């Protein structure tokens, strides 16, 4: 018989449409999750049917339901659509578990997320029915079970309830399809009490069940019939009056996927291993990238009596560990892994030595290579850089942590220059755009700090480089003019330069016979105030002869920017 679906304080509605089962790796919930425990929504768990129902959600919500064991997610159903405010998993008309159907058991945590790090959660109460409703006499039915608090010992009496749910007829006793038994004095149809001080076994008793229904069955016979009614033990939550968390144990219910919509097989081995928080060094807890060559993995076993778990990386045995009391496992790879892509699975071992492998596998990447800057603009020790130029650094791989604090520009006095930083993921280039025009003829320093990492968390080696702003000096006036004729044979040659420079001397400012290349004997002087370089020939120049003046790029301004080299010719007179 399929158990009747009766829930305490819950509206009768189901979600529309089932989700396609997808293989999703086990994940560990991030430490920064903002989770209410138990929360404002109602979460009801049916562990014997591996079903979860949650209510109180808006039509636009798309909640994700997770089951966690030992901190590892062992079941996920995502992007659920509320109907009348209710979302359900593994129930006809509701969503389905993805990859595998978790074998939900007491102590597991059920979480309903409305955002990646926001939601409500409850744990699965440890209540069972060990003997279904049994007729004692014409008037009396009893049910037996267990109820254990999270920390051990008896569950508080007001959190325990037993129910008999008829499949289609109402009971004559109360006109409802449900007989309820609560703590003495609760006013329910029957009472449930522990079998003795300190004992966690209980007995529920209903009297006055001689009444007969329309089908001729007495209430006692209906409650005790396995085809006419279902027996349930219930945990009513940490605050039974609020009723926002409920666990319903259904006697003789069958677990596994609720077909035909849901087909994800029941988990028969450990959950797919996931990187532990310490090994998951990537930017996201879901990117499965680590810079550790001996990463650790965590998960949960399926069998309550599993003794140990073996780890297999790329099919090779790579470590083992005992199962923790909460059903979780954590194993560090026993061998160092090379950089690149790897696949990990796990196998749990029963006390009899039988190993059962995980249904799924996790693909992860080991990356121990730190990023480097492959191109810099302006280049190292560049001169004559535009005062309005941007600064760019191109990286060898995708990075994280790029920003003003980790990529900055300083002036010649060491002060940081305000500049927004942008990142182009396609070109892997970071661009720093100064908010001001840079000072001319000054050295500037670009710094890249170890705050920048690749997506595996490997930090870049801090480094810096220097460039010098322009403008470069140029000759703004010259005498004699280019191609002048009839120039005095005793005239000086002058060049006016755009800014103060150094290095004006014999050799950097020279005069030659244009035809023979012979150097004219001369003396050079420089007036820093007028910025005029003067070449005074020591001899009278030959008549009607073409001469070439040359001023060299060895002449530099205060920032070291070289003069734009120049030569020009003129012809003397008689």
TrEMBL record:
Q: Which domain of life is it from?
A: Bacteria
Q: Which UniProt keywords apply?
A: Signal
Claim: NADP is one of the keywords in the record = no
Q: Spell out the Polar residues composition-biased ranges.
A: 278-291
Occurrences of domain SbsA Ig-like (ranges): 472-572
**Record keyword Signal present:** yes
- Stretch forming the signal peptide: 1-23
InterPro entries, alphabetically? Big_13 (IPR044016), Cu-Rt/internalin_Ig-like (IPR014755), Ig-like_fold (IPR013783), SbsA_Ig (IPR032812)
Residue ranges of the Bacterial Ig-like domain? Answer: 272-368
Q: Provide the residue span(s) of the region labelled Disordered.
A: 265-291
GO annotation terms (biological process): carbohydrate metabolic process
Official protein name in the record: Ig-like domain-containing protein
In its UniProt entry, the species of origin is given as Arthrobacter globiformis
């Amino acid at each position: 018989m399929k158990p009747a679906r009766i829930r305490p304080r819950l509206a009768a509605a189901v979600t529309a449409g089932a989700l396609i089962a997808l293989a999703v790796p086990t994940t560990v919930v991030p430490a920064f999750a903002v989770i209410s425990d138990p929360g404002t929504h109602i979460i009801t768990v049916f562990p014997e049917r591996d079903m979860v129902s949650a209510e109180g959600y808006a039509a636009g919500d798309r909640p994700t339901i997770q089951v966690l064991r030992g901190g590892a997610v062992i079941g996920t159903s995502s992007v659920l659509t509320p109907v009348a405010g209710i979302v359900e998993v593994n129930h006809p008309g509701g969503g389905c578990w993805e990859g595998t159907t978790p074998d939900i058991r007491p102590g597991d945590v059920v979480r309903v997320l409305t955002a990646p790090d926001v939601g409500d959660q409850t744990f699965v109460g440890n209540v069972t029915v060990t003997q279904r409703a049994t007729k004692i006499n014409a008037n009396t039915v009893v049910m037996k079970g267990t109820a254990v608090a999270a920390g051990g010992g008896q569950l508080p009496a007001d959190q325990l309830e037993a129910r008999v749910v008829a499949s289609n007829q109402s009971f004559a006793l109360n006109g409802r399809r449900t007989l309820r038994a609560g703590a003495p004095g609760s006013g329910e149809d029957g009472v449930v009490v522990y079998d003795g001080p300190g004992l966690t076994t209980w007995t529920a008793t209903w009297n006055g069940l001689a009444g007969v229904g329309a089908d001729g069955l007495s209430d006692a016979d209906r409650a005790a019939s396995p085809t006419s009614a279902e027996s349930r033990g219930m945990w009513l939550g940490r605050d039974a009056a609020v009723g926002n968390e409920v666990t319903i144990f259904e006697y003789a219910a069958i677990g596994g996927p609720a077909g035909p919509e849901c087909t994800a097989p029941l988990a028969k081995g450990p959950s797919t291993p996931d990187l532990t928080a310490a090994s998951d060094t990537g930017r996201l807890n879901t990117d499965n990238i680590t810079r550790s060559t001996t990463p650790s993995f965590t998960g949960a076993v399926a069998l309550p009596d599993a003794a140990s778990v073996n780890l297999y990386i790329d099919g090779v045995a790579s470590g083992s560990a005992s199962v923790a009391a909460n059903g979780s496992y954590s194993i560090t790879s026993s061998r160092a892994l090379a950089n690149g892509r790897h696949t990990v699975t796990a196998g749990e071992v029963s006390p009899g030595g039988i190993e059962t492998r995980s249904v799924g596998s996790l693909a992860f990447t080991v990356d121990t290579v730190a990023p480097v800057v492959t191109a810099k603009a302006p280049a190292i020790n560049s001169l004559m850089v535009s005062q309005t130029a941007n600064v760019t650094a191109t990286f060898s791989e995708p990075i994280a942590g790029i920003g003003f604090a980790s990529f900055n520009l300083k002036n010649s006095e060491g002060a940081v220059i305000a500049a927004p930083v942008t990142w182009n993921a396609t070109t892997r280039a970071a661009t720093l755009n100064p908010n001001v025009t840079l000072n001319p003829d000054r050295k500037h320093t670009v710094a890249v700090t170890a705050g920048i990492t690749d997506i595996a968390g490997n930090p870049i080696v801090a480094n810096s480089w220097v460039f010098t702003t322009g403008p470069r000096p140029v000759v703004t006036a010259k005498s004699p003019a280019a191609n002048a004729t009839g120039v005095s044979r005793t005239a000086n040659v002058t060049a006016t330069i755009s800014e103060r420079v150094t290095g004006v001397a014999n050799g950097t400012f020279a005069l030659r016979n244009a035809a023979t290349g012979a150097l004219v004997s001369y003396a050079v002087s420089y007036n820093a105030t007028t910025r005029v370089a003067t070449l005074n020939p020591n001899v009278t120049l030959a008549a009607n002869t073409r001469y070439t003046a040359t001023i060299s790029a060895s002449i530099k301004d205060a920032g070291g920017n070289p003069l734009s080299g120049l030569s020009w010719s003129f012809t003397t007179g008689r």
